[in-house]
Each structure stands twice: as C-alpha cells, then as structure tokens.
Design a protein that fits this description.
alpha+beta; two-stranded antiparallel sheet; about 50% helix; flat
C-alpha cells in the first residue's frame, strides 16, 4: 500500500504497514502505510510547493479545474444536468 506525498505515490519510509479491519465483523479490509517523521516532513514539503503553485495559478485556471472536477463527480453519480 502507498500514500501520496508531494504528488508521488510511495510507501512509508520505515516500510511499516497496518491492517485496517471492518468494525462490523473484524475481517481485514486493507492495509495502510504507517508514516513516521520523515513521511510527515515530505508531506509538509509537498504542501508548501503545492501552495506556491496554487498561488501562482490564475484564478480562471483554478476555476476551470474545479468545474471539470464537478463535472466528473456528477458523471460518477449520474447527475448530469447538461
């Protein structure tokens, strides 16, 4: 299993994973990486870069991305109005 850090999918730096169990019956649903300090630092570094890119992207371009995301969400739930 991987996590998204700085726009890249990767495992935890320490390599540890943890099982996720269903609260209904206790069976294993999946496993997730267990992030540590190094992973947290990578996440923060990625967020700083993303914030800078966001700031430098013109509002009309950000708006177009949000509209496209809304269209995709509508398609997936079958709520196409156009």
């Amino acid at each position: 299993m991987e996590m998204l850090l700085g726009g890249k999918w990767c495992g935890a730096a320490g390599g540890a994973c943890e099982e996720v169990r269903s609260p209904f019956d206790g069976h294993v649903v999946d496993s997730v990486p267990v992030g540590g300090v190094e992973d947290a630092a990578a996440a923060i570094d990625g967020a700083v870069v993303a914030a800078r890119v966001q700031r430098e992207t013109p509002a009309h371009e950000r708006f177009a991305v949000l509209l496209r995301a809304a269209d995709l969400a509508d398609e997936r739930v079958g709520n196409r109005s156009s």
